[in-house]
Amino acid sequence: MPIKIQNALPAREILENENIFVMDEFRAMHQDIRPLNVLIMNLMPNKEVTETQLLRKLSNSPLQVNIELLQTQTYTPTHVDASHLDSFYTTFDKVKDRKFDGMIITGAPLDYVKFEDVAYWDEMCKIFDWCETHVHSTFYLCWACYAALYYYYGLERYDREEKLSGVYKHIVCKPTSPLFRGFDDVFWAPHSRAMGIAKEKIESVPELELMAYSDEAGVAITKTTDSRKFFVGLHAEYDRNTLSDEYFRDLNKGMNPKIPVNYFPDDDPSKTPIVNWRSTGQLLYTNWLNYYVYQATPYDLNSIGKGEND
């Protein structure tokens, strides 16, 4: 699938160098098909890295995808060039009257911060409510996963004494689900977080399905039975060096982080990590986009939230 993004977005050149089909706005306008409209709310400090990781995973399906990037309007990030936000990002007030086939809300570096103490929590609550009537299927990633489970179902997270960092083995709990088409029975994926949710809490809500679990990392993927919400605690979109960059960043800050589990060969940070989750990441995002967005969303975007059959 060609992804349609703004011509000057820095991720464009990176993706094109990887032979990923990125469509410019002129060519997209001359295709006689309705593109999927996907909104990405990027809460991560390094916007450009996260943009590229997610766009790479959304790029391998049969139709055109129109990507828009959303930032918080009640909080101004301090670790990103303001010109980048001005050029490529929109705000909730500008999209709140529109509807989208799919949405991804990323994680945020907010370990150990209570949800109500997050500077933009009120805005997030409005967006969570808005997703119910304006987005066909939403993919809540990492921090957003736990925030959404708390907001929608009142499920309290737990905070870990030490940050979970590494590449962990997972079991597919629903092997017949289209979400896992092409997956092995056991798959590996990175985690980087200090919060989690108890398996028993997920199982206590009839509307929720536990999809993937790790003995070491815990609940990894959950979704609603109507497939309108996906709660993903792992980071299958991570690059080879993402955990390495986080480890050395924290080390240089004097934080004495533990070496990420199952990541550096021989647990030696001087050695290059071997990627064993790339296909998992591609399948996860492609399957969500194909089976739960493209094949399920109504052709008329305006009908989203108006009694559509999920």
Note the gap between the termini: 24 Å
CATH class: Alpha Beta
Number of strands: 12
- Major sheet size, sense and barrel closure: 12 strands, mixed
The CATH topology comes to Rossmann fold
Radius of gyration: 19 Å
Report the principal-axis shape: globular
Uncertain runs: none
Q: In the residues, how many domains can be counted?
A: 1
- Tally of helical segments: 10
The class by helix and strand makeup works out as alpha/beta
Nearest-integer average pLDDT:
90
CATH architecture: 3-Layer(aba) Sandwich
Provide the β-strand percentage band: 15-25%
Helix content: 25-40%
**SSE order, one letter for each helix or strand:** EHEHEHEHEHEHEHEEHEEEHH
Could you explain the architecture of this structure?
The longest helix has 17 residues, at 278-294. Helix 1 (11-17) links the parallel strand 1 and strand 2. The mean pLDDT is 90. The protein starts with a strand and ends in a 16-residue tail after the last helix. The relative contact order is 0.14. Strands 1, 2, 3, 4, 5, 6, 7, 8, 9, 10, 11 and 12 form a twelve-stranded mixed β-sheet that branches. Helix 1 (11-17) packs across helix 3 (47-57). It has a single domain, classed as Class I glutamine amidotransferase (GATase) domain (Rossmann fold), CATH 3.40.50. The protein has 310 residues and is of the alpha/beta class. It is 30% helix and 24% strand.
